[in-house]
Amino acid sequence: MKPLDDHSSRQLFYGRVFGLENTCPHPFEEPSEKILQKCGGLPLAIISIASLLASQSTRSVSQWNYVLNSLRSDLRSNPTLEGMRQILNLSYTHLPHHLKTCLLYIGMYPEDHDIEKDHLVMQWVAEGFVCGIDGRDALEIAGSYFNELVNRSMIIQLVEHHTFYMERIYHKVHDMVLDLIVSKSAEENFLCVVENMETITRRQHCKTRRLSLQLGEAELDKIAPWMSLTHVRSLCIFGLRHRSIELLELKFIRVLFVCKVDGLDLAPIGKLFQLSYLNVQCSYPGSSMQLPKHICGLRHLETLVIDAPLVELPQDIVHLPALSYLEVSVCIAYPDGISKMKSLCTLKGFDPSKQSVDNLRALGELLNLRELDMHFTDDSFRTTETRMLCFIPSRTVGYYDEWNSLCLSDCRLEQLRLGFNFPRLPMWVGQLSTLSSLEIHVDELCNDDISVLAGLPALAHLVLGATNVPDEGIVFSSSAAFSSLDYFESRRTGHSLHFQAGAVPKVETLRFQLDVDEVNSCGIRLAGVEHLTNLKRVAIGLGYTWESDVPMVEAAIRAIFDEHHPGRLVFHITSFYG
């Protein structure tokens, strides 16, 4: 990347430190200029030092001069890798001890690997880096550590748009930050990354506690004679096809992450009694995997993720006392008895069409369930509807009279994603008083349904798909305001949206889709945007028949928002044929 000019450098630096791109308090102007001189216009250097200064609890000129004097290299006159490493090392040195430990663990991941926040923090907790304190859950604390590393620019947050409705937030570390992590990890014997036989030979007499295998399959067969796995607490294996790892050697293993690996014998997993986190991913065509038939000995297993072709789940999975997170990407029947899984907080990839009636009924008995992701793999909803005598998302849920006569009590569900259509909005939705995030799709939506959703006091994130809506469209009424909603997404094309004053006072993000041909014939059916006083982001998908019509419609949409929110909004407009 080219160095930034002086103006852009100041904008980046001031924006990160002070929150305003063109503002710097007078006492800090001189040290700021000298620091920017040292950074030489390099964005990574500027954002690293700016993040370091922004993280300090107090701000003083002497503190800034201390940082300035710590920068020995002048990257403007001598832009070297060593100078950049020195800046990153300074940022690392100023990290609190707990953040250093968490950052070094990222060295387990290969270069340019997508980091999933939820899974990384679960690995930190499984390793014992983070514990609950003062009533705060360990995962909550670990999440705050992750956010702090993002704020300090040690971790980069990115957004990828696959389609208009598929937005993925993921994280990476810069290549030079990863080099620093690996170097520090080697110095402190924190972890070992094996990329070739030289590494194995060099480390054969070390007690390796964290091991990341990133080898070609030809070399991997040579590991066993050279490296002991006895002391390993975390093992990550990436992109290999092999059968050579002796899992039974992993007597103290807590984290096992197998990514894009084929042929690994998982039978010994049932005897890894200290295992807390297990994530198995396999993407090779024609590959399959088989878990052992019995895993009830895994008394400490808290996280189980299976993203691979799987014949069946172990029958005794329902007896794992600590299992709180279960995600199975393949559609598979769960063993009967899931009502015994009392510690389960998150359940993802659950297909009701594959389950027994007893298991559907039992979902209502999972008292600690906070997050549920359900979807059908085909059009089986109608065929399974008649046998779904009980359907979940709370402590007690019964299904009678086509999803509506449901009895709910003390519901504590916080996130609910239902990836299939209901005929109408189920009555029990209005009783989900702790729900903060909801995705739901209905064949028919009425105004009363909007009022029901508005009555959910904690609802902050709503994705709503409706095939048919009232003639006046989807109306957000001031008489039924959404008190907490900050994100709204409409998943159908062409519906009118009307926002009355005070109906959605906190909405910051609005996402919807329009058909260009409909706009040309009926106009843009969008009213009340002036009442969205906290709006910050607008994402619009434009479906077109003739691409030449798109610019005019896009300009008209921007004009509507610019009239009431001039220069204030971030727009993301995409167009597609169809």
TrEMBL record:
Residues annotated as domain Disease resistance R13L4/SHOC-2-like LRR: 231-565
Membrane-crossing residue ranges in chain numbering: none
InterPro entries on file: Apaf_helical, Disease_R_plants, LRR_dom_sf, LRR_R13L4/SHOC2-like, P-loop_NTPase, WHD_DRP
Gene Ontology molecular function terms on file: ADP binding
Keywords: Plant defense, Repeat
Repeat in keyword set: yes
GO biological process: defense response to bacterium; innate immune response-activating signaling pathway; plant-type hypersensitive response
Cross-referenced Pfam families: LRR_14, WHD_DRP
Gene3D superfamilies referenced in this protein's UniProt entry, alphabetically: Helical domain of apoptotic protease-activating factors, Ribonuclease Inhibitor
Sequence ranges assigned to domain Disease resistance protein winged helix in this UniProt record: 108-181
PANTHER family (alphabetical): DISEASE RESISTANCE PROTEIN RP, OS08G0205100 PROTEIN
Name of the protein this chain belongs to: Uncharacterized protein
